[in-house]
Amino acid sequence: MQNTIIKEQLKKDGFLPQRQNNLCSMRVGITGGYVEVAQLRAIADAAEKYGQGHVHITSRQGIEVPFIDLENVEAAKEYMRNADVRPGVAGRRVRAVVACQGNRVCNHGLIDCQKLAEKIDNTHFGADVPYKFKIAITGCPAACLKPQENDLGIMGTVHPQWKKDTCTGCGVCVKRCKGNAINMDDGSIHIDMDKCILCGECILVCPKGAIVTSKTGYRIFAGGKVGRYPRDGTRLVEVPTEEEVYDIVNRTIEYYRENGGKNDRLGDLIDREGIGNFKDAVLK
Q: SS3 of 191, please?
């Protein structure tokens, strides 16, 4: 029992027991893949001082320093704290939000993914939940951050609108459309919104600005996971504002905490309770 308590506390502090006796990996808490250069230097120094001189880049934009002796855990924690490097978490908790660079950097980015990630992480990172809870934010339907494979996924979207007066009928948008949703008939552009994947490529490539943004939004997926028994996230809703995204995130985590059983992921809970009940609870 004592060993179980010790392991659980280690996980809560971001230290994962290794297969080797008395060794563990130190997980660093990174939001949206963003790390300051000074923090990187501190992590490298910690790897040399307490580990074996290397780090592991995880599948979710994280960094771990393996081969830390249990006797050095407290010293390593203090070292990271002094360098303003947040510890990661493991176990039954909300994990760090992963995010692409969004519209701060990427030509295709439709939303500010880093801002969303920071705000959600500030509210929920490390919070206790029935099992693990993962959130991914991606800037456009290219879905580089795989929002459908997370408990909650957020994707930027854009609705295009054609402006007849500035269109020259060059057809670039027709060729570029990823969803085959645009066709040209007698010099007029027609956008089939049932086929449109809301990626904004037509807006990006139009040389005359004849296709413009009608509105942007946030498509939300719920209940996704990978692992031994993968589940695709359910397309839940598209909302127009950041505040609605935060509200849905908050209500979803609250619903999961109140109704999830031990070892339930959100998708397991949705399958058991029904998508209708879940929507009623989180889409107020």
A: strand
Inter-residue contact 216 to 157 (CB < 8 Å): yes
What's the fold here for domain 93-284? Sulfite Reductase Hemoprotein; domain 1 (3.30.413)
Are 39 and 26 in contact by the 8 Å Cβ rule? The answer is: no
pLDDT tens profile 115-162? 999 999 999 999 999 999 999 999 999 999 999 999 999 999 999 999
> Which CATH fold topology does 2-82 show?
Sulfite Reductase Hemoprotein; domain 2 (3.90.480)
CB atoms within 10 A of CB 245: 22
Closest C-alpha among 159, 153, 162, 141 to residue 216: 159
219: helix, strand or coil: strand
Count of helices and strands (H, E) across the chain:
9, 11
pTM (2 d.p.): 0.94
For residue 217, the SS3 value is strand
